[in-house]
């Protein structure tokens, strides 16, 4: 279109051009708005209370009726054009926002799923199950005792009175409860379960019979957690023991030898295994022995490995079980379950059992 130079233009044309300029400046401003807030600010500049279109409307008061008509209609056209541009931009911004959101939440259904790995038992738990199964097959039941133990069960009842030097070998963690002289403690071994279980066994037998029937033998193992102030590659402040106890009227050291030898050969699946009962001392047994084992083949062949303490239950302990030591006799042993686990799987650092590292643990599934 040919444009007249401004100074020739009749009033109407000049004003039209001004309106066109406002419309295109609004379109430009809307196009530049990248957020809804930008867009609303831009809108205010044209359609707001002091916006350019509103100002033009206000200025119409001074015009003649005829002029008002044309002028009003022209301003309206411009206003509609601005509103159309505004709405179009609003829609475009909303579409873009939706698009962005859809992209962010996009699911790639072709990706392989994240499998939930099957869990497995801890190697020490596997050992515990194995020990329970083997002794179970020899007629032993399984008993449990508390990990926070009374001084009496942990020491005194086991023939370790208050000033006995053997107590210092069992440095442990004392906890609130019990008496000032004999506070409760984290049990230093599973041996207190011997006395707890025997007392229950005797009481249950007494409750059942008043005709002097013979008491069934006590044959029990007690696996569980134990605690001592000790920490290095082969000692942990928390570790696992399994106690064993067999009391009857005629149970002797030779039964201990037979039972424990059978157990070890079954546990390690090897007849090629020798045991040695090495004289030792425990307050709760007399005589006492450390049990060492030796593999005749394999990577550990030829070395004596200490695996348990044992002995014939001391008469004082039998008495504390509520039994007459003249009539009842038997043996006990206490073995380290962590040790058995290390030997079975060839693990050389005890701490691996307690680190919770799945690269280690998942090898036992
Ligand atoms: N309780 C002992 C310890 O932790 C091990 C032990 C030795 C248990 C001889 C027994 C036993 O039952 O007869 O060192």
List keywords for this structure.
2 domains; BirA Bifunctional Protein, domain 2; three-stranded antiparallel beta sheet; binds 3,4-dihydroxyphenylalanine; 365 residues; disordered N terminus; seven-stranded mixed beta sheet; alpha+beta
Would you write up a description of this structure?
The chain folds into 2 domains: 95 residues; 242 residues, BirA Bifunctional Protein, domain 2. The protein contains 11 helices and 10 strands. Strands 1-5-6-10-9-8-7 form a 7-stranded mixed sheet, with helices on both faces. α2 packs antiparallel against α4. The relative contact order is 0.10. The site of 3,4-dihydroxyphenylalanine has 12 residues, from β9 and β10. The site of 3,4-dihydroxyphenylalanine (DAH) has 12 residues, from β9 and β10.
Q: What is the residue-mean pLDDT, rounded to a whole number?
A: 90
Assign the structural class, choosing from mainly alpha, mainly beta, alpha/beta, alpha+beta, or little secondary structure: alpha+beta
Which series of helices and strands comes N to C?
Answer: HHHHHEEHEEHEEHEEEHEHH
Number of helices: 11
Tell me the major beta sheet. 7 strands, mixed
Give the cofactors and ligands.
Answer: 3,4-dihydroxyphenylalanine
* Sheet with most strands: strand arrangement: 1-5-6-10-9-8-7
- Strand percent estimate: 15-25%
Would you spell out the secondary-structure blueprint of this structure?
Elements: H1 11-32, H2 36-47, H3 52-58, H4 65-104, H5 123-137, E1 141-142, E2 148-149, H6 151-154, E3 174-178, E4 183-186, H7 192-208, E5 218-227, E6 238-248, H8 253-267, E7 273-282, E8 285-295, E9 305-313, H9 315-320, E10 329-336, H10 337-345, H11 358-361
The protein binds 3,4-dihydroxyphenylalanine.
């Amino acid at each position: 279109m040919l444009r007249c130079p401004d100074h020739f233009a009749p009033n109407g044309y000049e004003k039209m051009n001004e309106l066109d300029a406002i419309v295109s400046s609004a379109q430009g401003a809307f196009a530049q708005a990248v957020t809804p807030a930008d867009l609303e600010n831009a809108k205010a500049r044209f359609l707001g209370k002091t916006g350019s279109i509103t100002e033009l409307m206000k200025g119409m008061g001074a015009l003649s009726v005829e002029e008002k008509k044309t002028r009003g209609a022209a301003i309206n056209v411009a206003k509609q054009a601005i509103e159309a541009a505004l709405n179009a931009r609003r829609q475009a911004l909303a579409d873009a926002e939706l698009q962005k959101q859809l992209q962010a939440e996009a699911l790639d259904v072709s990706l392989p799923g994240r499998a939930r790995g099957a869990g497995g038992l801890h190697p020490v738990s596997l050992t515990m199950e194995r020990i329970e199964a083997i002794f179970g097959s020899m007629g032993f039941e399984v008993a449990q005792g508390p990990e926070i133990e009374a001084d009496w069960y942990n020491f005194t009842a086991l023939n370790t009175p208050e000033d006995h030097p053997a107590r210092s070998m069992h440095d442990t963690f004392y906890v609130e409860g019990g008496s000032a002289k004999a506070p409760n403690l984290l049990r230093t071994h599973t041996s207190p379960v011997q006395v707890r279980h025997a007392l229950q066994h005797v009481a249950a037998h007494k409750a059942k019979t008043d005709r002097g029937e013979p008491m069934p033998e006590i044959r029990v193992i007690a696996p569980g957690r134990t605690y001592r102030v000790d920490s290095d590659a082969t000692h942990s402040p928390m570790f696992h023991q399994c106690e064993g106890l067999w009391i009857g009227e005629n149970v002797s050291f030779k039964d201990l030898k037979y039972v424990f030898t059978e157990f070890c050969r079954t546990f390690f699946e090897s007849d090629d295994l020798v045991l040695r009962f090495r004289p030792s001392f425990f307050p709760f047994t007399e005589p006492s022995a450390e049990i060492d084992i030796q593999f005749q083949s394999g990577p550990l062949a030829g070395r004596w490995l200490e695996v348990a303490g044992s002995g014939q239950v001391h008469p004082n302990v039998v008495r504390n079980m509520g039994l007459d030591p003249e009539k009842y006799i038997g043996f006990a042993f206490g073995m380290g379950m962590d040790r058995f686990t290390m030997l079975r799987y060839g693990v050389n650092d005890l701490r691996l059992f307690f680190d919770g590292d799945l690269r280690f643990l998942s090898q036992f599934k």
